[in-house]
């Protein structure tokens, strides 16, 4: 694309018309005269509204809505009305046009969609709760008209594709938002191609070095990979022709993110990830024959190559709840390499690529509810309750977006789809909220089991209830569905409020008898003494008789009297010296912002950044700056959910300040290997070790080293020297997840 400096109005006009004509080509098959007129009117309205506006990259703003409309038409497969709304998606928010203008020119439905898009355009605000409420608006909109979310996902995809023009802190924030909400939504709506691309783009900005390394290695191995794919599919093509099965067969590389995920999960380098690509077979068969044709192709594949019996996934007989249908198997290919093979019909392939839009196109009738319609109905039901805690709901809901599924049956044989690890209690809430709240257990395949019992594929479940049963706090520890968690919390919230009111009455009565000590500081002393976080928690503790009100008040009296006795006991000179020492310790480590002002900060414990790491800071809820590595999952999750302000952060020159970091090392358990490792660390590099632990099994050792270094250059030098030792198989820096496993 031409930049503002090198382009001319004429070149820009040609580019805009070119993109518009491409859009019309994409819609040609499904447009009538009225549709064409509507698209042209939407384009001209958007062009006029955005004529004075440019994007950060310098290009005319109209190219953004054109690109979003193209994604909506081509990659999602929505019709002319959705495309017109995509062209207009920013006009109400950013220009003088109103919803009344949209309704007048394009009708009520178009105005509703644009209104939905406008309402969710400020999802990630700086105020945490407001932001959470806006995420709730997204889900409400999804329940009302899925096209709003599909257009919003297209908008986010184009923003991610053009993120290079944004500042680094904006890149991190937008990528975090995308990872937190848009990736799982795309997954749940069956937009697999878009979901994979969004994951790769998030990785590009959150972990740029790793992204670049994997991309380069994929490019280097492309020729060899293509040779292997051709060798693998050749006998299958011949067999397809022999059996006169109409099908396309091809190999395609896995996404960078999925390869990186496998590297982390299995703790192996790029070269040892075996399934860097998948072979896909698309069967051309009428809908009534497609299942049998898919199984015929599966039989043909497993006759040619030996299958892994644990890796068959049959989503043809029972589709996923987002509409996905296919057969997946993993077979042993030439040269002893495992290869994943995906088999599906043309119809299934379109649903897999375009998700909800394609599913809707293939619905048998408007009255036929699919599993995807059922899922959207559940969202609507959950959101109908105005008392649901928004933040809790979003967390619970998000857990179910990515969850694998199991298929279980009622006593009458009705199918219910639940997430993996769902329990008898989840099943009870799936049937009805009242049944869940009164559940005391169940009959699992005719055998009585407790309500916490996990379910498996194919189980038949009968729920046992009692009128005396009530939900309890411990239920939240084993239910997994958003519906169950939401309903349990709803009941507990009502009960907790009643207990808090009771506790407050008891406390206030006692507090009234000791008015001389009734101050905010003395009340805080009570909370501090008992380690209680909030006023309501104190009232609750009193309400359930875990603490007597008179005992709590006595603590306040005692603390106040003690304070008066020791008021002159502080050594001011010692206090001043301690503060100065703390300031000197933190000096010259970090700077923030353009003017390099030194500011108080905390280095995050979760990812343990050291000088040289790519880092960012954010102002947390306590108004402190927390510094995290740019790929820290905990920080990304918190920023996405609460919208904390990101602060530009960089390292200054160090004065040999040591930072603790950890290394995970594996190797052959040979004589003297420990001496070699410690000699490099303590002898050759003169580094201080906090600890080293080693476990050995079957001739291989696995160790955890905690060592003090000055910066990443210092750390990389150490890692290079350790990797060069004979017998060392792998060496990685600890991330948050690894450390949690070892602590």
Can you tell me about this structure?
- Strand 19 and strand 20 (700-709) form a beta hairpin.
- Strands 1, 2, 3, 4, 5 and 6 form a six-stranded mixed β-sheet that branches. This protein has a four-stranded mixed β-sheet with strand order 13-15-14-16, with helices on one face.
- The two termini are 51 Å apart.
- 34% of the residues are buried.
- Helix 2 runs parallel beside helix 4 (80-87), helix 8 crosses helix 9 (146-161) and helix 23 (520-530) crosses helix 25 (549-565).
- The longest helix has 31 residues, at 482-512.
- Helices cover 52% and strands 15% of the residues.
- Among the domains are: 9-165, Orthogonal Bundle (Hypothetical protein af1432); 216-361, Beta Polymerase, domain 2 (2-Layer Sandwich); 572-651, no CATH class; 659-742, Alpha-Beta Plaits (2-Layer Sandwich).
- The protein is globular and about 85 Å long.
- It is of the alpha+beta class.
Can you lay out the helices and strands and say which pair or pack?
Elements: H1 9-27, H2 33-49, H3 63-76, H4 80-87, H5 91-94, H6 99-106, H7 108-119, H8 128-144, H9 146-161, H10 168-188, H11 192-206, H12 208-220, H13 222-242, E1 247-253, H14 256-266, E2 277-283, H15 290-304, E3 306-307, E4 313-314, E5 327-332, E6 338-345, H16 346-354, H17 356-361, H18 371-383, H19 390-402, E7 405-409, E8 415-419, H20 424-431, H21 433-437, E9 439-444, E10 447-449, E11 461-465, H22 482-512, H23 520-530, H24 535-543, H25 549-565, H26 572-586, E12 590-592, E13 601-603, E14 615-619, E15 625-629, H27 633-642, E16 646-647, E17 649-651, E18 659-668, H28 673-684, E19 689-697, E20 700-709, H29 712-723, E21 728-733, H30 736-742
Parallel strand pairs: 2-6, 13-15
Antiparallel strand pairs: 1-2, 3-5, 4-5, 5-6, 7-8, 9-10, 9-11, 12-17, 14-15, 14-16, 18-20, 18-21, 19-20
Helix pairs in contact: 1-3, 2-4, 3-4, 3-9, 4-7, 4-9, 6-7, 7-9, 8-9, 8-18, 9-10, 10-11, 10-27, 11-12, 12-14, 13-15, 19-22, 22-24, 22-25, 23-25
